[in-house]
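Hello,

Following up on my earlier ticket. Below are the two sequence lines again, exactly as submitted.
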Amino acid sequence: MSFTETQFEDLPVIALAGRIDSGTAKSYEEYLLARLEDGRPALVLDLAGVDYISSAGLRVLLIAVKRAAAQNRGFALCQLQDTVAEVLEISGLTALLRVQPDLAAAAAAVRKE
Amino acid sequence: MSDPTLARLTVPARLALITPARDFIGAVAQLEGFAAKALGRLELLVEEASLFVVEQAFEPGEAGDYTLILLRRPGRLVVALEYKGLPIDFSRLPGEGELGLTLMRGLAEEIQFLNLGKAGRRIEFSASLPVAPITDYLSESERNREAPPADAGMMPAPRLRMMGGEDAVALSRCIYRSYGYTYVEFIYFPDRVKEMLDAGLMISCVAEGEDQEIVGHIALLLASPEAKVAESGIAVVDPRYRGHNLFKAMKQQLIGEGQRRGLYGIFSEAMTLHPFTQKGNHSLGAHETGFQLAFLPRDVDTRKIEASPQGDRAAIALFYLRTNPEPPRRLYPPARHRPLIEDICQRIGLDRQIADSVGTEGDGGETRLTVRVRPDLGQAFLQIESFGADLVAQVRHHLIDLCCKKIDVIYLDLPLSDPATACCCDGLEGLGLFFAGMIPELDEQRGDVLRLQYLNNLSLNLEAIVVVSPAGRALLDHIAAERLRVGQSVAL
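Thanks for your patience. The regenerated structure is below:
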């Protein structure tokens, strides 16, 4: 489990890595909600390093997208591995979680919101 | 015969212990040769099933545990979770919070929810073991080969014999050559076919052409090596050898084998897009026992036979062929379906006494019900193990849940030897379930089952269902009338 803060153009990006499961979900949730309190205009999550997500992880992402919407901030996920994309597809949450193919598309999506 | 246990782990029902338990099961599965992607799916299923148990079966803070069992079955690795906890509240509708169940149904090839009565509950799912597909055994030219053209009667008549495990590659080769990749999946994996044969779950007859090449096949599939009825299937004839009446000859050989082994009977599912399979069944002495509307998904290969579309999916006719005397039984069919059940028993020659309902609706306890889901085929099968006061509520809960998960067709089997079947049927039909037919001796302990069916908002064209006999027509007319009578989803 790791969190790395990077930048794409002028937009802060958080790169997550590892497994988001029932063992790590709480830590991810606390970290993401804390980032939403720091005044950033949008939450862009780069999931290229995440190779496993369970329903516990999906709940964390749902909490984050709802909190971002409540604060009028943009939200997008990008660069999903195939296994993670499949889980989102089965759960029917791909659109709700604003999944984008890459960082450029994610940046464009949150700027439109 | 019990399945070999690879691992067994009892875990306290605590959130923090789910991932270590999952990782243990993953490590054992890795020893069985699972590659990273398949392993990830299996681990996810274990985590979701464990989460479901920890969150739903125990009160917060309640001490309890569950047991993870890893089993080996022919061609498959099976994971079971057994637990004793709170009964699920079936009066509560399946909710949006059941994200884990959605993932389990989406990821599992097959999943079962079993109520073990006093022994608790069991969730079971399986994954195919990694074995080489038939394409690994083929040369480049064979891989690119077109299906051979039909040339009826030009080839010498093949020799029929029973199949052994050493024929598994040749059989997969025959099916691939004839139909490409459109048949039931396991048949393309010779190691799985061999395991099924060795375990006594598959009895096959093959037709052998020139150079010992397999050019035809038909199988009996058994739910367990001790099963007393078998399902006939996987009928394949190489197009070059059509015209030799191979299907009938192979099936006759299998019927003889079934008689020798003491099977009570053989049931089969015949396509209704054309008359050929149904006529073939009649010529062998089999009889219609029902119709399952919309059973087959649209993408199942219909072998390019021109047919009128039946709508979203296609119906099959159920057939039964008696091969040995079965135990005499007393049946309790619902009054509405009694004439048809009597007719089926009479046509087949079953030793049955049809009794009137005696007004019992079960023992008043909790209903025991097994749910088996095939997400890839859009099918689910519910089987009543014992009747309780909550029968209709439980079935309603599962119907709603399965419909929300986009399962197209749901079947419910009721034991006809249980007097409660006659009494409870009305309540179940009030949910939109309607008559599908009867399958003799399907239940290993209790014998014949009455099968009801539920369609999840499908468009149907019943006119396009091909029926070849007056008895079949009478069955289908009753089913069509019952479908109209119960309406659809009326009480959901």
